[in-house]
Each structure stands twice: as C-alpha cells, then as structure tokens.
Amino acid sequence: xxxxxxxxxxxxxxxxxxxxxxxxxxxxxxxxxxxxxxxxxxxxxxxxxxxxxxxxxxxxxxxxxxxxxxxxxxxxxxxxxxxxxxxxxxxxxxxxxxxxxxxxxxxxxxxxxxxxxxxxxxxxxxxxxxxxxxxxxxxxxxxxxxxxxxxxxxxxxxxxxxxxxxxxxxxxxxxxxxxxxxxxxxxxxxxxxxxxxxxxxxxxxxxxxxxxxxxxxxxxxxxxxxxxxxxxxxxxxxxxxxxxxxxxxxxxxxxxxxxxxxxxxxxxxxxxxxxxxxxxxx
Length: 282
Fold this sequence. Notes:
The chain is α/β, with parallel strands linked by helices. It has two domains: 42-115, Ubiquitin-like (UB roll), CATH 3.10.20.10; 138-268, Cytidine Deaminase, domain 2, CATH 3.40.140.10. The chain contains nine helices and 14 strands. The protein has helices at 31-34, 63-73, 103-110, 117-126, 140-156, 183-196, 214-222, 236-245, 273-279; strands spanning 42-43, 45-48, 51-54, 57-58, 83-88, 92-97, 138-139, 164-169, 174-180, 205-208, 227-230, 248-251, 259-262, 267-268. The strands form four sheets. Strands 9-8-10-11-12-13 form a six-stranded mixed β-sheet. It has a four-stranded mixed β-sheet with strand order 3-2-6-5. The chain has a two-stranded antiparallel ribbon with strand order 1-4. Strand 11 (227-230), helix 8 (236-245) and strand 12 (248-251) form a beta-alpha-beta unit.
C-alpha cells in the first residue's frame, strides 16, 4: 500500500499568517515548576511474615492499602481477619498474615516464575452446568448513576492527564477512589482500603477506568464485590473469569454502546412505580 504525502503547507484555521512565523504548536513546559505535580513511581518493597515477597512499581500514595491489596490479589491471604499487623514507610510495607499460606509458591507466582495453575483448577471446580443467579443489589439505572459519579471523580483526580483509576461506589455515594499507573494497581489500592476498613462490599460496584483482565475480575470477586463496571471492553479471559465467579461485568459504561458482558443477576430492572400508580396496573 502506498501512502500519499502532500507537500502543500499546513493551513491553520483562522490564521492568515505564514505557518513558519507561528510559535511552537507544543509549548515548552517549565519542568521545575510542574515536576511536583507529576507522578513519581517507585518500587514498593512488600514483606510478608518477615520475607520479601515482591517489589511492584506503583505511585507511592496509599502504600499500606496497595500492599494489602497486592497481597490479597496474589493470594497471600483470603480473609480480611488474616491481616494482623501492618507497618509502612513511603517505600516499604511489612505485613503479618495468619493462615499458613505457602509463601514461596505465592511469591514465585506473583513475580511470574511459576504459572498460576490454581486459577484454572479453581475455575474447573467452581464452574457448574447451571446458570448461577444472585439477588439484585441495585437497579440498572442506579448502577449507571453510581458509575458515572465515580467517573466524574476520576476526572477531577487526574484521569484526563492519563492516570488509571478505580473506585467503590454504592447507590448513595462514592466511598473510595484510587489512582495509579495501571487499572490493576488502582484496584489493588481500593481493595486494600476495603480490607483495612472492614468495608462491606456486598452492595457496591467496582468502577475501573481502563481495560480489565482476568486478574482484576478475580480480585474483585474474591473481595465480595458483585458488580464490576469499566469504561472499556473486557478481555476474553476477564469474561470467562466473571462467568466462573458469578460476577456481573459491565463494559463501555460511558458509551452509548454500554452493555452487560456477563450477567450475574446483581442488576434489577428499572421500574417506575409512579407511572404504575398513574396509569394503573394491568
């Protein structure tokens, strides 16, 4: 295929002057002035029961919550009551975890040295021939409103500058938001907050700015959140994991093409009782 390149000068709308006399299209920024507003990612050393288990790169805010969420996502513990002690600095977090997990195996899985085969085994053991349904926790219209409230907070917190965000929202309010270099890290911060605060996620939805993959879906389901909403499309492994975990997965939430990719039964139909009273029930 041949790409035709025009040699004509670029036309600037509303400007009759020569393009060569204009200033730079991209203004030069004063880095000394704006550097404090830019993210400074760094490695967060995470020790569990005295052993160094990982050093993921993240934006060093809410480091304790990030470490708790990271440890939970990588299966160093399964229940909120298993975290007995947390101590943290800006780049180091130490967790004491009860439960007798295999630290070596979890550590090697977290850094990718061995595959997480237990995910496939769990999927096979929990997948059933029936279609599991759950009690609705909110209507579809309420879910749209709660997700949009979270997305608006994301925008005020730097989403337009490129940060990835995650948040927990209910019908009444947005309870927690976090930002980081990836949506997965942001989700881990929110999950860590929910665990440390003993927050009941059973009536909440997790809102994520960006594409979600299988690990995010699994983490959200394990923490007890029934609905995951994203402004992007989910990956195929994310859809398969949501089916296995009976999690309601909504994608393209801010688009006119938004839809439910996996229906776990957590969204009820939107009804208008005042209309029924006005026109009478059939």
